[in-house]
């Protein structure tokens, strides 16, 4: 690796082959050739959904954070991008400023 000019971060590296590994919140299982969300990633999305659903005064930024989490896993979830559309269209019709606008969620 050093000959190629690359640095190796030993804490983040796995130097032997694995049949199952987690990378960027996705569990890659090479025995079944499947990719699944890690429990931590599922928990972070569910927490964001609950925060948005229960929130009375939310910022557009909070909605955008949820959309970002959903976009990050859209390749793992079948038709994942379609789940984002209703929220995207709703936000687009409101024309809120991401930093300043707070609104009441009904």
Automatic annotation (TrEMBL):
The residues the entry assigns to the signal sequence are none
Transmembrane spans: none
Alphabetized InterPro entries for the sequence? DNA/RNA_pol_sf, Hepadnavirus_pol/RT
Q: What PANTHER family does this protein's entry cite?
A: REVERSE TRANSCRIPTASE DOMAIN-CONTAINING PROTEIN (PTHR33050), RIBONUCLEASE H (PTHR33050:SF7)
What protein name applies here? Reverse transcriptase
